[in-house]
């Protein structure tokens, strides 16, 4: 995203009654105290999730699949059928042992077809005296609100990127017969966006009283056809240990990526 017009949250409120209008979207700002609770909750939950995934390769296998591309010397990270549930309302993971064969059953917390099917299967397994069912993990989720991947209105994609620091959302929309690509990305204390690769607009918090409690709502005009979420991803397997020594010291600076 290149340079473009910048808006401070306070100026947006003073000059535009909290809303800035563009051809493809409207941006509304509010600094309500309740936003602090939601921001803190989602941020904490996501970092706790990343920590749990680092500590448990078994749990991580339900969230993502990692492959090392030896030819290009890079890691590729793929999502699973359950990634979205980790991010939204959570899920329960059961260990199942039947006739000496071990398997797992995942039951999403979110109501819907996937939950109904998994819950019905769990009920059958629990009623079978020859089957051993153990609850391995029960996760509350991170509190994200994202479309279902089964939506018939638009396609939803998830990408996990170990090189990314802030979330990025890419939307493909149709407005009056014209196709548009909208990129929306968080950064420290603000949000930035561009349309069709054009100039980047930035809205940021410029008041110490607003830090950690400002909410930017971007209302997309037209019909959204596809949504892609690119999210930060942490895994110790990707880390490198760096040691820097100088002035005769054996180890002065020691850190990982």
List SSEs in N-to-C order: EHEEHHEEHEEHEEEEEEEEEE
Strand content: 35-45%
> What does the radius of gyration come to?
22 Å
Given the C-alpha coordinates, what overall shape results?
globular
The number of distinct helices, counting runs of at least 4 residues, comes to: 5
Look at the structure and give the mean pLDDT: 86
Could you give the order of strands across the largest sheet? 1-13-12-11-10-15-9
Short description:
With 257 residues, the chain is of the alpha+beta class.
Provide an overview of this structure:
There is one protein chain. The protein has a seven-stranded mixed sheet. Strands 2-3-14 form a three-stranded antiparallel sheet. The protein starts with 5 loop residues before the first strand and ends with a strand. The mean pLDDT is 86. Helix 2 crosses helix 3. It contains five helices and 17 strands. 22% of the residues lie in helices and 42% in strands.
Secondary-structure map with pairings?
Blueprint: E1 6-8, H1 9-16, E2 19-21, E3 25-30, H2 34-55, H3 57-63, E4 64-69, E5 74-79, H4 83-87, E6 91-98, E7 101-108, H5 113-127, E8 131-139, E9 155-161, E10 168-175, E11 178-187, E12 190-195, E13 201-204, E14 215-220, E15 223-232, E16 241-244, E17 253-256
Parallel strand pairs: 1-13, 9-15
Antiparallel strand pairs: 2-3, 3-14, 4-5, 6-7, 6-8, 10-11, 10-15, 11-12, 12-13, 16-17
Keywords:
257 residues, alpha+beta, seven-stranded mixed β-sheet, three-stranded antiparallel β-sheet, 22% helix, globular
């Amino acid at each position: 995203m290149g340079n473009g017009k910048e808006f401070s949250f306070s100026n947006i409120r003073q000059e535009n009654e909290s809303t800035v209008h563009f051809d493809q979207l409207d941006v509304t700002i509010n600094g309500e105290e309740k936003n602090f609770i939601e921001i803190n909750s989602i941020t904490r939950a996501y970092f706790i999730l990343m920590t749990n995934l680092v500590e448990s390769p078994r749990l991580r296998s339900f969230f993502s699949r990692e492959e090392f591309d030896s030819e290009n010397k890079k890691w590729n990270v793929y999502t699973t059928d359950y990634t979205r549930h980790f991010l939204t309302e959570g899920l329960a993971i059961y260990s199942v042992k039947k006739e000496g064969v071990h398997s797992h059953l995942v039951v999403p917390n979110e109501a819907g077809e996937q939950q109904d099917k998994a819950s019905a299967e769990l009920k059958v397994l629990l009623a079978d005296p020859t089957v051993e069912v153990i609850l391995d993990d029960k996760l509350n989720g991170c509190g994200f609100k994202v479309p279902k991947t089964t939506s018939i209105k638009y396609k939803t994609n998830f990408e996990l990127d170990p090189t990314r620091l802030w979330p990025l959302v890419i939307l493909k929309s149709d407005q009056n017969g014209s196709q548009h690509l909208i990129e929306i990305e968080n950064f420290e204390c603000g949000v930035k966006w561009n349309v069709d690769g054009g100039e980047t607009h930035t809205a940021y918090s410029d008041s110490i009283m607003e830090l950690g409690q400002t909410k930017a709502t971007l209302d997309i005009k037209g019909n959204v056809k596809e949504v892609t979420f690119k999210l930060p991803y942490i895994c110790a397997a990707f880390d490198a240990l760096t040691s820097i020594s100088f002035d005769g010291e054996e180890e002065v600076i020691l850190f990982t990526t």
